[in-house]
Every structure is written in structure tokens, then in C-alpha cells.
Request: fold
Amino acid sequence: MAPSDLDQLLDMGFEEQKAKLAIKKAGGLADAIEWLDTNSEKTVEQTQAEDAADAESKAAEAADQARSLVCNECGKRFRGTAQAEYHASKTEHQDFSESTEEIAPLTEEEKKAKLEELREKMAAKKAVISEQDKIDKKKNEQIAAKKTKESQDIKEQLKVKEQIKDAENKRREKTADLEAKKRIQARIAADKEERRLKTEREKAERAGTAPPTAQSAAPVAAAAPTTSKPASEYTETRLRLQTAAGNIMKTFPVNTTLFE
Reply:
């Protein structure tokens, strides 16, 4: 069986009580030997006295250590920085300090009361959010209804404008048709009169009598329509032809002659 660390230290000549203390402090054989070498001039009593003094110092430090945080503006205590930061975000309090006073843990009754308080706060917050949601929903519906009405009004206005435009176009087309019809009738009448005069002249020449004179151009001129705008503004004209199959409407440039 392998000898223990203590047996090996005793075999090296170290005192048993000091060897035990070295193993307790160092943990292993090599570290124990190093500790014994470092504290070779100290007695066991001196070492124990130093350990007691260190323990008292640590206890004093622990007593002075901050165990809670205090809001100097309202006096409320907090276990940690997270709670203090949350309190500051809600109240805008900025003056905090550390305290060595430890906050006692909550009892079961206090835990239940705290939980019930949190539930009531959450329910109240949820109710406020629900009411705000209703208000927001109503506002959104009003905005949507207003936009719909405005859109319908715009569509109606555009529809009225299109109707006015179509009526104006039809009126212009009807006026143009009437004027074209009058021009064609006047031209046909003029051609007919010219043929009649030609026939009369030829007949007079054969009979040796005086040729007939042309009728006054006033009626023809009177038949000419009075236009609401200069003729130079028209770019086309329409010609209606009556055939055995029915009437035929043709559109020609204004510079086209009747013979073309």
C-alpha cells in the first residue's frame, strides 16, 4: 500500500501537527512541502493565530459588503441593480446608494400578496391596452371611411368630367356633320345649276337664241352654313352617299375635291 502524503511528510522529519496543517492548506504533497518551506520559521500557534485574524478580517469585510441598494429619493430598497434600474426607468429617480442591510426574503403570505398585486396590475394594464386598441381601431376605421369617401368623390368627379367631355365631343361631331351636309348640298346644288346652265346654253346655241344668264349666287351663298369657327381649323369632312343598298358615310381630308 502506497504511503499517504502525511506519512511521507513525517518520514521527511516534519512535525505531525504542522504537517497536517500544511496538507489542509495546500491540498497536495508538493504544495504542502512548499508551504512548510515558506512557513518553516513559524510555529503552529502563530499560523493558527494568523488564520483566525484572516477569518475575522473576512467576516468584517463581509459585514461591510453592500447587500442591497436604496433609492435616496423615495427610500425604497432593492436586492439588485436590475430592480433598481427598472425603478429608475419608471420613476426617473437617479439618486441611489449601497446598503449593508440585507433585505429579508418574502414570506409565503407576502409572496402570495405580491403575486396578486402583480396580477391586478397586469389586468389593469391589459384593460388600458384593450381600450386604447378600441380607440385606435375606431380612428383607423374613420380614416379608412374618409379615404373611401374621398376616393368615391374623385371617381364621381372624373365620371362627370368624362360625361361632359363625351357630350361636348358628340355636339361637335353633330355640328360638323350638319355643316358637312350643308356644304355637300350646296355643292350639289351648284353643280346641278351649272349643268342646267350648260344645257340651256347648248340649247340656245342650237336654236340661235341668246344664252340664259346665271341665277344670282345669293341663294347659294345663303345656303352656305355659318360656322362657329374658321374653316382653316377643320382637317376633315364627311360625305354621305345615297345608294340602292342604303346611305354610305365617307370621311375625306378637307382639301379633297368632289371629283376626286
Observations:
- The two ends are 138 Å apart (CA to CA).
- The CA atoms of residues 116 and 208 lie 135 Å apart.
- The chain has a mean pLDDT of 79.
